[in-house]
Fold:
Amino acid sequence: MNRRVLFVDPGDEARARFVALASRNGYEAEGVRSADEAFQRLEQRPPYACVLADYDLGESTGIELFARVRAIRPGTSRVLLAGFGELDRAVRALHEGSLLRLLQKPLRDAEVLDALRGGMEQYEEIERERQVTEQLSFSRDSLLCLMDTLEQRLTDEIATLRGVHDLARSLESARSLDDVARAAAQAISHALGGRSTRVEFRHPRPGNQDVVTALCSRSSAPQHLQRLELAAGGPAIYVESAETLTARDQRVIGSLASSTSLAAHCQIHKLERDEAQHATVFALARLAERRDNETGQHLERVSNYCRMLALGLREDGAYAAEISDVFVSDLTRSAPLHDIGKVGIPDEILLKPGKLDPGEWEIMKRHTVIGGDTLRSIIESTSTPGFLRMGYDVALYHHERWDGGGYPYGLAGLAIPLGARILALADVYDALTTRRPYKEPWSHARAVELIQSERGKHFDPAIVDAFVERALEADRIRILCPDEELLDIRVA
Structure:
């Protein structure tokens, strides 16, 4: 396993500290002071699994270095170290795919080691994908040779290829492991004359035993269950049939399973990339929250309230067609972004202890537009925005009111995106029931009473009904996720 890492930083002390830390933890660590030195080593020495670079490298930047690294060593993981003033450009680079991880200075040993572990995992994943690609290329060449020499099997081979092609088209539109498994089960069942088929994936990450299964079966009592497991890390295929699988059957399944395995790996890689993206954006949302003196578990509670409300609405039949599993997941993950625009509000307004005057209030209201613009710029710069589309809605519209009396645009009713309408109620309930520098917390009962009084005014009536029906669950979330002691945190 490649454990070679390179640290690029003009500071002698920072380099020495990193090399010592990495070496103690089993890495082959080296340090250089400039981008040119780093590039020379990358060209002349064996591949590094991970490169960590400071944003400010004097005559160059870490982002510029990573562009060069990506050109000659695309498999090498890239981790950028940035100060607060460099975060905007660093975050943009993160979502453009120029780097794996963003660490904010000053660094903590645990964060550095976690980034190294993530870098090693990404490097190994890219290597595995390269090997899979080579194996698939070899399999394709072998199949073409077989078709040239075995003309008597032409009809069968054409049918097999048609099945692979149809499966590939289905896999192109797959959005989850469930979709991949379902498409594979249907394709294999069709290729085997309608025999029932089950496809399973076991998640390859250590410690995660989740199994994704798609069953394509009409029989209530299977006569015979045969199991065919492909290469390690691939899908396990089960076929229900009274007949033993022939060599051709197994070859057909193998052809279909190769495409299935690659699609599954892509979905898993996308999931891991989304998780890294979510962790980074959540950290930025936490930074915005703490500038507003709202420390503690506010973001976690609001996310949980939003998930509760979305599932409740679907259960009640309200907006059921709109609230898919993806909608629930995206809303839960994007809820922490609702006040990210507060990073653009001056401290003298954001932290003012007393009431804001009209001019100050107009500036404060701009945090919705700032948040929306920030997330839109990220969405426009990446091909896989994922949950950030929902984040844009909640950041921009969560202060709109059902009756049209909100801001920034005075939208009313269904013109307000559903995710923002749900977030609006969750955010108000949390604000009412938690201690703030300017007020004591309200009781749960008093907060519920106010929310009921705003039905059809501030809040969507259907969302209020779903909340009231699950008020005890909201109270449990509040109790199980209390705020920690307030800390006096200022960002330089």
